[in-house]
Design brief:
This protein is α/β, with parallel strands linked by helices. The chain folds into 2 domains: about 240 residues, 3-Layer(aba) Sandwich (Rossmann fold); about 200 residues, Glycogen Phosphorylase B (Rossmann fold, 3-Layer(aba) Sandwich), CATH 3.40.50. It is about 45% helix and about 15% strand. It has 20 helices and 16 strands. The strands form 3 sheets. The chain has a 7-stranded parallel sheet with strand order 5-4-3-6-7-8-9. It has a 7-stranded parallel sheet with strand order 12-13-11-10-14-15-16, sandwiched between helices. Helix 16 links the parallel strand 15 and strand 16. The chain is globular. The N and C termini lie far apart (about 55 Å). The relative contact order is 0.13. Pathway: Protein modification; protein glycosylation.
Length: about 475
């Protein structure tokens, strides 16, 4: 007999409803905003009585969220034995699509793993390219696609070569076309919905649902409460921590925080420390190169910096006199200590489609200084839970200086309480899980939009295009004068 969960019927009686089995498909279950959303959504659905299985092409136990490695979630790595994540550091999107094809074929045609799970629905995010293939193979199973942001906009670069722009054309077209095969589609904010409407005028954006990302509002308990509640101290001094948490990617604009911090008067800098923590994967060239660029920027601006990778090193008193401290891929325990110790969180990306970090800070009573565009416009309330500013370093310096030198503890505490209230009322994990379960209930009985013969032909054509892309790409790699 299948497990069920209690549910209240319309006449007020409590009965049993059939347990849903939701299968998630995610490309790389590492550390980032998209991955945090996937993990929180999966945990939330589990708490509501759903069975959840996550399939991914990569999950490094040393570089993923705790729930993905401690047994909280059933995470299965498949489709990672044939196609590499990139070819000579390039063609990441092509490889990601082919790896997802391999994953889907591995659990549907090569084995009966998916049939044994017998999912009630699929949750797919980031890559929509294989939605038609999945709908062809499992036409009776509805597919929910979560669009974090149009991928073509995430990789746009005006300085890209002609060859790279031509290389991206089939993938950009495939993104819009393939999303249409999802039974239901959602975006993470009104901002993203407006961007989708502008990017793909022919796409029925009015049918997009908005499901805000969430955070766990039940703060983790500490095995050492005294350590958790005490601010971080380096040596004998207690400095105000200005905290930045983001992946080491250029689009995150972390340099803005460093430039603004360098503009602070010397007395304010002596009272504070800029701590830059975030996702860092040594396999990703951009993470490595951008971190090196930020270290170089500190040197240019006359700021002393240090980079550490362990909790012990991060709390070492020998880095007391460092102006800027880089923490690479911090574990949750240290992240909690940093958030509880921070006086201000600075969130630098412009036109970020949502942004989970400001919510994490607000939940812990930390005011947020964020860019006045994108998702933060829907999460941060000017003057009540933080500040929204344009991208000029001087504007950010003014807020940093105000928090460090001129705002009293009472004023900061009041702003912190406003932030906690806003997160708990609008962005709790229970709310997102409730919305997602409602979406899957709406899709019950609705078949996936089967690709049919035409879909199969187009999928094969996409594969051929990909193969041609690999061939052309390898030729270009061998040609020193042409770079993608």
């Amino acid at each position: 007999m299948a497990k069920g969960t209690k549910d209240e019927t319309r006449d007020g009686k409590v009965g049993e409803k059939k347990q849903k089995t939701i299968v998630f498909l995610h490309p790389d279950l590492g550390i980032g905003g998209a991955e945090r959303l996937v993990v929180d959504a999966a945990v939330g659905l589990q708490k509501r009585g759903c069975k959840v299985v996550i399939f991914t092409s990569h999950c490094d136990p040393g570089h993923c969220f705790d729930e993905a490695r401690d047994g909280t979630l059933d995470v299965r790595v498949r489709g990672n034995t044939v196609i590499p994540p990139s070819i000579l550091g390039r063609f990441s999107i092509l490889c990601a699509i082919l790896r997802q094809v391999h994953l889907i074929l591995s659990i549907t045609l090569f084995t009966s793993e998916l049939s044994k799970i017998n999912p009630s629905g699929f949750f797919i995010d980031q890559l929509s390219a294989c939605v038609p293939l999945l709908s062809l193979l499992r036409p009776q199973t509805p597919i929910f696609f979560y669009c974090h942001f149009p991928d073509l906009l995430l990789v746009q670069n005006r300085n890209s070569s002609l060859f790279k722009r031509l290389y991206r054309i089939p993938f950009d077209a495939l993104e819009q076309w393939s999303m249409g095969f999802a039974t239901s589609t959602a975006v993470n904010s009104n901002f993203t919905k407006s961007v989708v409407a502008k990017t793909w005028p022919g796409y029925p954006a009015d049918q997009l649902k908005i499901v805000y990302p969430c955070i766990n509002t039940s703060l983790p308990s500490s095995s050492s409460p005294d350590e958790e509640t005490q601010p971080i101290k380096w040596g004998q001094s207690e400095k105000s921590i200005i905290l930045s948490i983001n992946r080491f990617e250029r689009k995150k604009n972390i340099a803005l925080a460093i430039q603004a911090f360098a503009l602070l008067p010397a007395p304010a800098r002596q009272k504070s420390k800029l701590v830059i923590a975030g996702g860092y994967d040594a396999r990703v060239h951009e993470n490595v190169s951008y971190h090196a660029d930020l270290v170089s920027l500190c040197e240019t601006l006359g700021l002393k910096s240090a980079t550490v990778k362990t909790v012990v090193s991060a709390l070492n008193s020998s880095i007391e006199d460092v102006d800027v401290l880089f923490l690479l891929s911090v574990p949750n325990a240290l992240k909690e200590i940093l958030l509880k110790s921070a006086k201000l969180l600075v969130y630098t990306p412009r036109e970020e489609h949502f942004g989970i970090v400001p919510l994490e800070a607000m939940l812990r009573g930390v005011p947020v200084l964020a860019a006045d565009s994108g998702g933060p416009l829907e999460t941060v309330v000017e003057g009540r839970t933080g500040w929204l500013r344009a991208g000029e370093p001087e504007l950010w310096r003014e807020v940093m200086g105000r928090v460090v030198e001129r705002m009293g503890e009472g004023e900061l505490r009041e702003m912190g309480e406003e932030g906690k209230k806003r997160v708990r009322e609008n962005f709790a994990e229970t709310e997102m899980a409730r919305q997602l379960e409602g979406v899957f209930e709406e899709m019950e009985g609705a078949d996936a939009k089967g690709a049919g013969a035409l879909g199969l032909v187009l999928v094969v054509m996409a594969g051929i295009t990909g193969a041609i892309g690999v061939g052309v790409g390898l030729w270009l790699v061998r040609t020193p004068a042409v770079k993608l």
